[in-house]
Amino acid sequence: MRLSEIQSHFAEFVTRHDSDHIAKPDLYMQGGASIHDRLSVYLNNYEQSLVKAVMSVYELISALTGDEFAQKIAASYVRDHKPASGNMNIYGHDYADFIKNYEGARDVPYLADIARMEWALHSAYYAADEQPMEIAWLQTMDEEALGDLKLELCADVHIVKSEYPVFDIREFCLAENGADLNIEDKQAQNCLIYRTRGDDMRVKIHALEGGELFILEQIDQGKKFEAIAQAADIKNYDLGLLLQFIFGNDLVKKQ
Predict the structure, then answer these.
(1) CA of 231: how far to CAs of 150, 234, 239, in Å?
(2) Domain final residue, candidates 74, 108, 142
(3) Among residues of the chain, what percentage have pLDDT more than 70?
(4) 204 — phi, psi (to 5°)?
(5) Which range marks the domain in which residue 223 is found?
(6) CB-count exposure of residue 74 (10 Å: 0-12, 13-18, 19+)
(7) N or C: which end of the chain has fewer CB within 10 A?
(8) The whole model's pTM is what?
(9) Which range has the worst mean pLDDT, 21-35, 85-99, 111-125?
């Protein structure tokens, strides 16, 4: 058997628990522990390394459910989702959807949105570095060109919308004050996640207000500047103040 075939069978066993080929007596050297037992060492290392990778990204899941349950969810995910790339920074991107459909998490309905928030924080950190647009550049444009302009959010900018108070839930987890989590009287929250520039680069999270969310969504949907200005005027939003927030935090990229 060719080396490539042996490697292929080994990968099938490790990633899919497929031992059909592994059991062949002429495939590997015999003696001592069984082939299956010896290869199970690699299977366990493979699964545990992926579980550890997932849990390191989604730390708030552990804070909300406990390490044992969080590890159980992660292990279930890993068994059904093998990495599609050698870049482990993108592994676990659909974990929120998995949690949403995970039977054992039905009693914690906000857990999927918390996972979505955590992935946005993770993605913002590893996003491509883009040069932000300066607000002064808008002043150099004539009225027609400005009206046709479509701003683009930087790759590190993420909007997380939720029916639950996800911002407050996150603050509760980080506070570690031992208080009980009570979300019954709290309203739905939306969050902006982005990365700062310069030597002190860090990921920030900001609870979005109505006007901020509206303008950012308009930009994200590819609306022209003229349409955004008109919509802001109808809703009585202070567009100038909102633009100061957007450009002051380097949320749109230079064109």
Answers:
(1) 15, 5, 10
(2) 108
(3) 82
(4) -120, 155
(5) 129-255
(6) buried
(7) C
(8) 0.83
(9) 21-35
